[in-house]
Amino acid sequence: MSIIPDPNNVSGLVVKYYGFTIDEVEYPLDQLYKPAPSPNQWQGLGIHTQLDGPPNLTITGGYEVLLDKVTLNTFSVDPWSRQSCPTTPQEASRLFGGLVTGWQLLPGYSNGWKYNLYSLPETQVPAIRNGRIPANMKADWWDGQTTYSNVSGPNYIPFATVATIWCLP
Fold it and tell me: 41-69: per-residue pLDDT in tens?
């Protein structure tokens, strides 16, 4: 996340959330929020967890959450402002979403990345959710029922089990 000038010139500054990671799986957000500081409170960045559930937890039994090794990453410059093609699986995962080990550079290409959760040895490999397609890239993906082809950015991949991203010259 980073604090950047408001692109709508309404509030001066906004907080930009790039995404979050759970069990090494990237979930891109790319959302802007107006800061809302409260009087007499610490002025800084923080992390919290909010559990939303049914109104009557005594019937459903409630739930437990364990957070371990939480890290907040901040950026002084948007990490994807240069809109360049990722060079590592970590960069591909941060930009497009999904598990780092799910991203492979297409053999024989320097501008194409492939994600295929069915080819991974892990038993619980997640699909891509809300992956980002920057302006200078195109994507093909399959969501388990429908194939989407040649989708130009800027755009998003709502859900995909298999995806190919092409960085354009």
Answer: 555 666 677 777 666 666 666 677 777 77
Domain count across the chain: 2
120 and 52 co-located in one domain: no
Q: What is the b/e burial string over 42-59, where b = at least 16 CB atoms within 10 angstroms of the residue's CB? A: eeeeeeeeeeeeeeeeee
50, 101, 121, 151 from 116: Cα distances, Å: 31, 10, 11, 18
Radius of gyration of the chain (CA): 18
Domain residue limits at 120: 89-167
In a shared domain, residues 54 and 94: no
* 95 in a structural domain: yes
To the nearest 10°, report the CA torsion of 135, 9, 78, 28: -70
* Four-point Cα dihedral 81, 93, 105, 164, nearest 10: -90
